[in-house]
Input
Amino acid sequence: MHGFFSSDGAPIAFLNKTGQLIILSVLWLLCCIPVITAGASTAALFYAVTKSVRRGRGYPSREFFRAFRIHLAKGAVVTALLLLFYGLSAYLFFGMAADRTDTLAGYFGPVLISVLLVTAVAVYIFPVMSRFAQGIGATFRQAAHMSVRCFYFTILLEAGLLLLIWAQCFVLPLPCILFTPGAGMYVFSFPLEKAMRPYYPSEVPEGADAWWME
Output
């Protein structure tokens, strides 16, 4: 029993991880407030969760802000593009439907398919951004390739994301928002990392800290 409740025991480890996920959730929420920084914040959340919470490397808040600074500019561009797309989709789906009764029927299919396809890429793009040093175009291409190559993971991630948003909005009490972003990313990180594994270089440079291979 003493070992079970020691600093290395399962209950203490669980409480420690829970505390780390709460801290990262709060940091993610705060860094998403300007909206345009949501992409960099999401990339930083994935980075900190996979490196610090799952593998115990570094301090969660320090790793979060490190990744946030690195991906701020690139993340802002990607976020702006996604916001533009989703804003246009919402306009076509809701705005024009208010003016003409046949608009919704005409646009429902194409808009829905487009949203699902872009979301399939979006669930990968910020984790890919946090893991691979490449340009925006290459990041989009890799995320798109992963969304097709790992089709079953893509369905799982999209469904899980929608379920998490629905649960937070309509089922869970509001204070749970201080935990659900980190907890959700913790769960999503398992299929995401498995999907990214084939894209890792076959050889790691000598002296490089390839913590993601652990």
Notes: Residues 11-197 form one domain.
